[in-house]
């Protein structure tokens, strides 16, 4: 790909400060837009997939640190975005590519970040930063550059204590991730339909799914459409009556940003779906909402799982899948044996933890044993990431088709 102009290098970039709420400060160079970015700082260990990461709505209000040392090498293409915009609040990289090099590249990553007004910082020791976050946990942080850089921040001897104090005040005034309800901010304002595609294009749908968009990634309806499913993508604010009016064979809840303990509307909506006996599949935030609807709690992980090589055990088969993750919260359900769902004295019957994260034993999937409902915390849509979990979309289609057949038999 040819690029106009001279790309900036470390010598021509101005100073940027990265300040964490615990007082940890790193001095780097401005990258992307200049200004101020505040949010929860988290790290992503994917060696590939920065476009998918940047456009994943689940990163809304988060400053993302890439542990991959070179970012931007393949530029920006028109095929990989997971939504119509970049959602990260800020971006931290070690060494930005000076020029994109890929037959698919259409633009430079840094131009894209600037166009989206995403404030970034580069020339940062992302290894030291990641080790710090692993020990201290995800926390609030800020990137300060350009006009937002306080006086005394780029002294040759290092930022002055007064400059750091000004940044720290801004960081500590930002909202904590715990307690934030963010799905409504990223959801589609209006419903839309994704028709069966690929081998199923133009054919009668195999099944109809109502997918509640809490921050849905483009790959998810695509995975269903490729299996012959018509997907009605519905806004976060959708009501049970609107879902039922679609006469869906199944309901899906997507991934999304924020703290699942705030998702009261979604939990009520899902209980209505479960009461109606409609097959359900949830991913990530959708898994946490199924957990809550069944009566379990959720809690914040110290630093979360974000990357594309996380091992997950499918306990029913003993199979280990390598999977993409992006979550900072998890479901608190008994792991040892199936438990009776605590909501309303066991109204939804027995539940098993179907999947476990092998790095830390975190709940990575739930299966209701007395209802047609299951969910996973990881990302079977595989964007970006290994395709090991894609078979779960087949499982959902099979569940819908067999459930419909059973119901036909039961009908008088
Ligand atoms: N990708 C997601 O759906 C993330 C869910 C939730 N916001 C979490 O951080 O755990």
TrEMBL record:
Residues 14-144 form the Carbamoyl-phosphate synthase small subunit N-terminal domain. GO terms for biological process: 'de novo' pyrimidine nucleobase biosynthetic process; 'de novo' UMP biosynthetic process; glutamine metabolic process; L-arginine biosynthetic process. Pfam families: CPSase_sm_chain (PF00988), GATase (PF00117). Composed of two chains; the small (or glutamine) chain promotes the hydrolysis of glutamine to ammonia, which is used by the large (or ammonia) chain to synthesize carbamoyl phosphate. Tetramer of heterodimers (alpha,beta)4. Small subunit of the glutamine-dependent carbamoyl phosphate synthetase (CPSase). CPSase catalyzes the formation of carbamoyl phosphate from the ammonia moiety of glutamine, carbonate, and phosphate donated by ATP, constituting the first step of 2 biosynthetic pathways, one leading to arginine and/or urea and the other to pyrimidine nucleotides. The small subunit (glutamine amidotransferase) binds and cleaves glutamine to supply the large subunit with the substrate ammonia. PANTHER family: CARBAMOYL-PHOSPHATE SYNTHASE SMALL CHAIN, MULTIFUNCTIONAL TRYPTOPHAN BIOSYNTHESIS PROTEIN-RELATED. This is Carbamoyl phosphate synthase small chain. It comes from Actinomyces slackii.
